[in-house]
Amino acid sequence: MGVFHEMSAVDPLRFTHAFIVLDETTAMEPWPTGARLVGLAKFATSPVAYVWLPDLDDKDRDRLVAAALALDGTPYRVRDMGALLMWRLGRRGVRTVRTVTDRRYLTPGQFVAETYRRAAVPMFDDPHGITIGDLTALIVAVEQWHQRVPTPDVSRGGAAS
Questions:
Q1: In b/e form, how buried is each residue of 145-155, taking b as 16+ CB within 10 angstroms?
Q2: pLDDT tens digits, residue range 92-133?
Q3: What burial class does residue 98 get, using C-beta atoms within 10 Å of its C-beta: 0-12 exposed, 13-18 middle, 19+ buried?
Q4: Distance, CA of 84 to CA of 102 (rounded, Å)
Q5: CA–CA separation, 139 vs 84, rounded Å?
Q6: How many CB atoms lie under 10 A from the CB of residue 16?
Q7: Could you tell me which of 152, 132, 161 has the C-alpha nearest to residue 6?
Q8: How far apart are CA 35 and CA 150, in angstroms?
Q9: How far is CA 159 from CA 5, 7, 151, in A?
C-alpha cells in the first residue's frame, strides 16, 4: 500500500490519499472517476510513503492484487466524502448509512480497506467508515507495518530512490 501525505510542519503524518501497490512498477489508485492502474513513477516526486505487512505470503499478496484489480473502475463522489464526515461525527441517519456502506463507491481509505477485506487479509473489522486518518493511525499504532519513504534523487531530476 502507498499513502500520500502533505508536507506539513504541524502534522508530518497527515496522509491525504492512498493506493494499492500491485508490483514493482504499478499501483491501483482510487480516483473520483474510477479506480485506475497507474505507474509508480507517477509518485516519484511526490511525498509518499510505502507501507506493507512483511508477514504476508505470496498467496496473500496475490489475493490483494486480484482484489485491487477487481475494483478497477470503482469511483467515489463528493457525496461519499460528505457522508464519511457525517459518519465520523456520529450522525448516522438512513442516507448516511446507505451512502457509506454502498460498495459501488469507495473513497481512498475505503478502497484500501475493502481490498484487504476481499483478500481476506485482516485490517479493520468494518471497512465502511474508514478514512485516510484511520489508515494512518493503523500504520503508526501496529508494529507489524513496515514503512519506506523514498527520498528524491536530485541527480536524476527528482526521481525517488
A1: eeeeebeeeee
A2: 999 999 999 999 999 999 999 999 999 999 888 877 888 888
A3: exposed
A4: 12
A5: 20
A6: 14
A7: 132
A8: 24
A9: 17, 17, 8
